[in-house]
Specification:
alpha/beta, 369 residues, globular, single chain, seven-stranded mixed β-sheet
Length: 369
């Protein structure tokens, strides 16, 4: 048993996040009990190694993790606080104010200090315990959301849990968390879905022209509608606030495009508006943290053409290692039927010239090299 996490841990809700938490904590040596509204889902979680079904003689949990949608989390947290008077109870829903407000209405005031909110910032496009992974949280932020009366031991337990599963713990209050996730998670889902919805109209030949840019911007659109209805509804105020800012920029773009379309010589104002939007996007994307939490300016991206033959990608990665350059990230771009793929390599910017030169000497084609 790890000293960082109270044990046993009861996980209520064995979907993607609950299942992945169980797998990660069991790997760290924590005893895991699983519970789910669906007996079949709970049984599958046990079969997949998430945890064990608690019997009548099972010890009371020291920590309860409620991994359920925001609309039912408060009720499940209140039940857990009442059922296990000594246990710490946390929920890992993606919206915190709704859960905390609901809990304040439901729970006894003397139980509230044992409650703490949490949100592991990780996920996949696929859902369910069958998609659970023990490494889902590695390197990802883990937000700890205490309230005004949360016990210090609850904060300590959640910080220890985050460290055990390989996450990076950070602390926020509920309101700050909800506006933050609206900006970095919930509105991106809406925008991706909006863009993907426009693809219902084009012809098959038109869609055949699609490249990596469209795939990148619509990747998360293939998500569970039921789950996202609950998430967006629970965080409606914060999401609406951010979408209002998006709408203002979109109206400026539409106005600029209308001017350009209707006037052969519109002057510079409309072009400037479009250029300023793209420039603001440049500045915004550079603020997204890199692999180790630093600015993306610390990394450079090389694009290398990789022949579509067995062993070529492995050879590229081996030769990068031989040069002595650490690969921070790798993204592959390949279309069926093409003779080459593109490997997008993120590396330390200070090593860009070295790697470009060494790869070229080994016969690799580096874009723009």
């Amino acid at each position: 048993m790890t000293a960082l996490v109270p044990s046993p841990v009861r996980i209520i809700g064995t979907g993607l996040i609950g299942g992945s938490l169980g797998l990660a904590l069991r790997r760290a040596g924590v005893e895991i009990q699983v519970e789910d509204a669906s007996p079949g889902t709970a049984a599958l979680a046990v079969e997949l190694g998430v945890g064990e079904l608690p019997g009548a003689d099972a010890p009371d949990p020291a920590l309860v993790l409620v991994a359920a949608p925001p609309d039912v989390s408060a009720a499940l947290v209140e039940r857990a606080l009442r059922s296990w008077p000594e246990a710490l109870v946390a929920d890992v829903a993606s919206v915190k104010s709704t859960v905390l407000d609901g809990l304040r209405r439901r729970a006894r005031s003397e139980d509230l200090p044992r409650y703490i909110g949490a949100h592991p910032m990780a996920g996949r496009e696929v859902s369910g315990v069958i998609a659970a992974r023990a490494d889902l949280f590695l390197g990802r932020p883990f937000v700890i959301v205490p309230h005004e009366s949360t016990e210090a031991r609850a904060v300590s337990a959640l910080r220890g849990l985050a460290l055990e599963i390989g996450s990076v713990p950070t602390t926020m209050d509920a309101a700050a968390h909800d506006i933050a996730v609206a900006q970095v998670s919930h509105v991106p889902q809406v925008m991706s879905s909006l863009l993907a919805a426009t693809l219902l109209r084009p012809s098959e030949p038109a869609l055949g022209l699609a490249g990596q840019g469209l795939r990148d911007t619509t990747r998360i659109a293939d998500s569970d509608p039921r789950l996202w209805v609950e998430i967006l509804g629970a965080n409606a105020s914060a999401v609406g606030q951010v979408l209002g800012e998006v709408r203002e920029r979109l109206e400026e773009v539409l106005a600029a495009l209308g001017t350009l379309e209707g006037d052969p010589d519109p002057g510079t104002g409309s072009r400037r508006a479009l250029a300023e939007l793209v420039s603001a996007g440049n500045r915004g994307v550079r603020r997204i943290p890199g692999k180790h939490g630093g600015a993306t300016d610390a990394f450079a991206t090389l694009v290398v053409l990789v022949p579509d033959r067995p062993g070529e990608l492995a050879r590229l990665l081996t030769e990068i290692g031989q040069v002595g350059v650490n690969l921070e990230d790798l993204r592959l771009e390949h279309e069926l039927g093409r003779d080459v793929g593109l490997a997008h390599l993120a590396i330390d910017a200070a090593r860009e010239d070295l790697l470009t030169r060494e790869l070229a000497e080994r016969g690799w084609r580096v874009a723009d090299a």
